[in-house]
Design brief:
The structure holds two protein chains of two kinds. Chain A is α+β, with helices and mostly antiparallel strands. In chain A, 26% of the residues lie in helices and 20% in strands. Chain A has a domain of 173 residues: Oxidoreductase, molybdopterin-binding domain (Sulfite Oxidase, Chain A, domain 2, Alpha-Beta Complex). In chain A, strands 2, 3, 6, 7 and 8 form a five-stranded antiparallel beta sheet that branches. In chain A, strands 1-9-4-5 form a four-stranded mixed beta sheet. About 3% of the residues of chain A have low confidence. Chain B has a domain of 144 residues. Helix content of chain B is 69%, strand content 3%. Chain B is globular. The chains are: A alpha+beta, B mainly alpha. At the A-B interface, helix 4 of A face helix 3, helix 7 and helix 8 of B.
Chain lengths: 257, 222
């Protein structure tokens, strides 16, 4: 039976010979077979072909080992270099996992700092409560994991002072943070107690501007930039590994300088 | 016993590349490739030379986090293997024997010969002055990478080292320059090895037998 789709006048068969290599390369079965095996390979690795699950697991195991090495290298008494106030960059460099235009300002009057975990006095804090504690100013270098750096001047309550005041268990392993921009973070207790770790409320002598964490952000001289959460809303002292935003995406946890 | 026979006994015959050297060479080859290609992945997030980016197919790690993890894993391989190599090279005298002395006249001679495409490569058991110099440069570049790498990894713990290197950004640039030196060496090294494939086979199988003190004797005679 003649197909309705068959043209009345057939093309010259020689055309087929001319385009044979092209036709072969486009062979459907080959394409499907190739597609299936590539898919199977991707499934076999559990992730993508570029980063097989076994390689990822090995790299993360080494990263956790490196966290321990970094903790050993960390000297709690070693101070980061400080700089004169004249070298402060104004305004500071903005960096987040989103654009500066997407910053959602926090209302300082309504803002409360919640406490949880191994802390004796868990009463929430207002910005006035924080300002009533002894303050400290440090002019330090901010170093980003990407490679850039700048000098910034930060003022606020030394984190050690705060943790002692609220009766936190200073032998606990971790201090975890929740933020208004949904950027969970955590640092080790030794770094939290370092004299250059602040609950910062001011930059260059002025109230923190919205994009940089108003009313309060963590600022520590002994960690890479991504370990300095902005718009902190909750602090937890814990012995259970809390992780963090970038850490859950593969970045090293300790990230000490 | 005469002094001649003592000298004779001291001549130990071994392969051009003893087994430990071959193992360390190939471990280093892998480590260097890991460090350079993952380093390019890290570099891309904040470039030092405007306009210079490394294409995806050149980078190890599909984005910065994994390039970093490769870099911080590869550093152990590079540093530990490199340290053992240096200890081995000094303890056995191999480094001194193979790479020293370099004479300026020899250096000029080799450069002139190279420019006339008359480079002698019949004997792969001895290095010419340019080869010696390149190997010394790349060894120091490797050491420098570990030092500058340590400085930018721990700029607070090693703040003294950082200020010695001229600050954090300067240490970072030096780390990049060290990579460029090693990469430049790698290109020449691989190209020459491919031109004289016997050298590749020697680095795999050990190469011809040589007596350790032959060259030293020749040096004292000349």
């Amino acid at each position: 039976m003649k197909s309705r789709f068959r043209p009345n006048r057939l093309p010259d068969p020689a055309v087929l010979d001319d385009y044979l290599p092209l036709i072969k390369s486009l062979e459907r079965r080959g394409l499907i077979r190739g597609g299936i095996s590539l898919g199977a390979l991707a499934m076999l690795t559990g992730c993508d072909v570029e980063r097989p699950a076994s390689v990822e697991a090995a790299l993360l195991a080494i990263s956790r080992f490196n966290d321990k090495v970094q903790a050993l290298l960390f000297n709690p008494n070693k101070l980061a270099p400080t700089y004169p106030a004249s070298m402060i960059l104004k305004p500071p460099k903005f960096n987040a996992y989103y654009d500066v235009m997407d910053v959602k300002p926090v209302d300082g009057a309504k803002w409360r700092l919640e406490l949880s975990g191994l802390i004796a006095d868990k009463r929430p804090w207002t910005i006035r409560d924080l300002q009533a504690l002894p303050q400290r100013t440090i002019v330090i270098k901010h170093i980003c994991v990407e490679g850039w750096s700048y000098i910034g001047g930060w003022s606020g309550v030394p984190f050690r002072t705060f943790l002692e005041y609220v009766g936190a268990d200073l032998r606990a392993k971790y201090v975890a943070f929740k933020t208004a921009d949904n950027y969970p973070s955590s640092i080790d207790m030794a770094s939290a107690l370092h004299p250059q770790t602040l609950l910062a409320t001011e930059y260059a002598g002025e109230t923190l501007a919205d994009p940089f964490g108003y009313p309060m952000r963590l600022r520590t001289a002994v960690k890479l930039g991504y370990k300095n959460p902005k718009w902190v809303t909750a602090i937890e002292v814990t012995n259970k590994y809390p992780g963090g935003y970038w850490e859950s995406r593969g970045f090293p946890w300790f990230a000490g300088l | 016993m005469s002094s001649a026979s003592i000298a004779y006994n001291r001549r130990i015959t071994h392969r051009l590349h003893p087994l430990p050297v071959r193992i360390m060479h190939w471990i280093n080859a892998v480590a260097m490739l890991i460090m350079i290609t993952s380093g390019w992945g890290i570099y891309n997030d904040d470039v030092i030379i405007r306009g210079l980016h490394f294409a995806k197919f050149l980078r190890l790690g599909d984005w910065a986090a994994w390039s970093l993890n490769w870099h911080f894993a590869g550093m152990w391989l590079l540093a530990i293997n490199g340290l053992i190599y240096l200890i081995y090279g000094v303890a056995t005298g191999r480094l001194r024997e193979r790479l020293l002395p370099i004479r300026v006249s020899e250096l000029i001679h080799t450069v002139r010969e190279t420019l006339h495409f008359r480079l002698e490569h019949g004997d792969i058991t001895t290095y010419n002055a340019v080869q010696k110099l390149l190997y010394i440069v790349v060894i120091f570049a490797g050491i420098s990478q570990v030092v500058t790498g340590l400085a930018i990894w721990k700029p607070v713990q090693f703040s003294g080292l950082v200020s010695l290197l001229g600050g954090f950004q300067s240490a970072r640039v030096l780390h990049f320059v060290g990579m460029a030196v090693i990469f430049g060496f790698l290109v020449v090294h691989v190209l020459l090895a491919l031109l004289v494939p016997r050298t590749i086979w020697a680095m795999l199988a050990g190469g011809p037998s040589v007596s350790q003190h032959d060259r030293n004797d020749k040096a004292t005679q000349s």
